[in-house]
Amino acid sequence: MVADYEVTAEYVAANEVYVAEGTDERLLGFYALLLGPPAELDLMFVADDAQGLGVGRRLATHMQERARAAGLASVRVVSHPPSEGFYRSVGAIRTGTVPAALPAITWERPELRFALG
């Protein structure tokens, strides 16, 4: 899904981007938090072979801690449909559906929110 996606140096300089590395310094996953407004989890990806090892859960926990430290009350997530269950398992609540964004995205996406209260 992300084979042609590029996170540029400019994107990293403009946003809070965090990575999870293995003991061998291999990239296991990353996320980007846009402080907004509105605050949004723009990207969160975990390497295929690192899924199921708790990397995503640790990234989600870190994201919520960073968002709270920034004074945010909530963080919006527009999820890839197969990832909705993961986000719900780490505390996000579904708030709606975002329509397809043709031509690049041809499917509706779940909209969720982390309440940081």
UniProtKB/TrEMBL annotation:
Keywords: Acyltransferase, Transferase. It comes from the Bacteria. GO terms for molecular function: acyltransferase activity, transferring groups other than amino-acyl groups. PROSITE patterns: GNAT (PS51186). Gene3D superfamilies: 3.40.630.30. This is N-acetyltransferase. InterPro entries: Acyl_CoA_acyltransferase, Bact_Acetyltransf, GNAT_dom. CDD domains: NAT_SF. SUPFAM superfamilies: Acyl-CoA N-acyltransferases (Nat). Residues 1-112 form the N-acetyltransferase domain.
